[in-house]
Amino acid sequence: MDHSEVNTIRSQFQAGHWPQFLQMVQIGGLRGWSGQAVEFNFPVVGVVGENGSGKSTLLKVAACVYGNKDKDKRFYPSAFFVETHWDKIQGVRIDFRVKRGPNVESNRITKPTQRWRVPEDAPNRDVFLLDISRTLPLDAAVGYAKIARLAAAEIESSEIDNTFRGRLSHILGRDYKKARFAKSDVDKNREVGLLEREWGELSQFHQGAGEDATLDLFKVLQGIPTHSLLLIDEVEASLHPRAQRRLVRFLLWLARQRRIQVIISTHSPYVLQELPQEARVLLLPGPQGLSIIYGVSAEFAMSRLDDEKHPEAFLFVEDRDAEILLREILASDADTSKLLQRVTINAVGPANVVITLGSLGVSGKLPYKSVAILDGDHQDGKCLALPGTLAPERVVYSELKQKNWPNLAHRFGIGAGTLHTALEDAMREPDHHRWNALVGDQVLKSSTSVWEILAAEWCRSCLSTSVRSHLADSIAAVVDRA
Q1: At which of 260, 280, 300 does a domain end?
Q2: What tens digit of pLDDT does each residue of 4-14 get?
Q3: Is the per-residue pLDDT at 288 higher than 70?
Q4: Is 304 inside any structural domain?
Q5: Is residue 427 part of a domain?
């Protein structure tokens, strides 16, 4: 993640520098949505969820919120949500809230029976929707096969400017000398993209899928007006992980430069990892309908799309350190260690995300058994907590120090004096999240390795049997529940 770019956008967004902004969409009676609302809390938002969870529906609904001075460019729900012999679309209600300058306005789109009712006074905004059809090979698109066979000359050409061409080169990892779109003598209404490399020029008829799709995307992005709304379905399509990361960083830069709002759907952890927590939205289907979860970790969001594991229950914790500590607690006794074979531990994000998932689990809205476990310094009535009343690092370090760092010199394989100095010096750092890394720098181990050793020894030397049993019994009660 480009933290500098993200922090700049965050501060400017909070200062109100995006005068046009879609703040909320609420959807009822459409494709499994039953009144759930999605809030957009950052200029670039990534929506993730399994196939059929409602991502494309959300993007299409967002496109219909706004009017357009050019009526031919207006998106209408009747074009997206077509009633067929098999699909009856009635009783639909879409509420939305938009910011326009200093004012916040609410409005509604409905389809009570046969006809859509779209507000006449909908706010105007330039809206661009790029769906998955953009990845269709050019020669498979209507009209282009004829151009490929019959074109004999160009009648017009327009270039991607140097700034955007440079960004395109960076994303795809190739040095393009020129990027342009040409119209042929066969059809002046259809453009063909061309990229020039060191050995010559290549048209979209022969470019790789990633080049083809990204070149078309850049044609839109170069000309996108200030304050527009940009919606991209499956933004990672046809791109390798490094290109995905670079594309998201480019979209962040462009959002700041032109004050545009970007909403993307994705199945990629690499995309989510480039976005801050407030920019991540998980659509999670459950037995009682769809749940909207904000700020999830990329790892947890992706775990919901992977069917490799079949645990009896999911344990939700805040971060990787909490995950390691919980695992060591359960593993420190022969009886409680058996639970590890029946559960999976997920680091899902900050305390508010754990609390949200805990509430959903208690109310039966998740499609699986679950237990939410907060750090000791974040107590909540619907969640369990790790031992102590402080952050896990503070609990483990302070209690091991009280016992004069038992057995750690042997576990680390270095002299006690050197190790104890490194441990106690790290504890002087105000930010406890940095302690493991600071120790690791001194003892030549990764921060994860440091924490695993400390957590294991803390469980052996400091953890009481009653505390371990209470935590394990509470988890087992959920796992064994019918």
Answers
A1: 280
A2: 899 999 999 99
A3: yes
A4: no
A5: yes
Say yes or no: 169 and 77 in one domain: no
Q: Are residues 186 and 325 in the same domain?
A: no
Tell whether 118 and 231 lie within a shared domain.
Answer: yes
Same domain flag for 180 and 230: no
In a domain, 374, yes or no: yes
43-101 pLDDT tens trace: 999 999 888 888 899 999 999 999 887 777 888 988 888 888 788 888 899 999 999 98
Q: Is residue 306 over pLDDT 80?
A: no
- We report the CATH number of the domain holding residue 247 as 3.40.50.300
Q: Taking residues 138-162, report their average pLDDT.
A: 68
Could you read off the pLDDT of 370-398 as tens digits, one per residue? 899 999 888 777 789 999 999 999 999 99
Same domain, 144 and 199: yes
The domain in which residue 51 lies consists of 3-126+225-280
Would you say residue 247 lies in a domain? yes
- Asked if residue 104 and residue 25 are part of one domain, the reply reads yes
Tell me, letter by letter, the H, E, C secondary structure of the chain: CCHHHHHHHHHHHHCCCCCEEEEEEEEEEECCEEEEEEECCCCEEEEECCCCCCHHHHHHHHHHCCECCCHHHCCCHHHHCCCCCCCCCCCEEEEEEEEECCEEEEEEEEECCCCCECCCCCCECCEEEECHHHHCCHHHCCCHHHHHHHCCCEEEEEECCHHHHHHHHHHHCCCCCEEEEEEECCCCCCEEEEEEECCEEEECCCCCHHHHHHHHHHHHHHCCCCCCEEEECCCCCCCCHHHHHHHHHHHHHHHHHHCCEEEEEECCHHHHHCCCHHHEEEEEEECCEEEEEECCCHHHHHHCCCCCCCCCEEEEECCHHHHHHHHHHHHCCCCHHHHHHCEEEEECCCHHHHHHHHHHHHCCCCCCCEEEEECCCCCCCCCEECCCCCCHHHHHHHHHHHCCCCCHHHHHCCCHHHHHHHHHHHCCCCCHHHHHHHHHHHHCCCHHHHHHHHHHHHHHHCCCHHHHHHHHHHHHHHHCCC
Domain match, 451 and 397 both? yes
Per residue in 420-432, pLDDT (tens digit) is 999 999 999 999 9
Domain count, the chain: 4
pTM of the model: 0.77
Q: Residues 382, 396: one domain?
A: no
More confident position, 404 or 298: 404
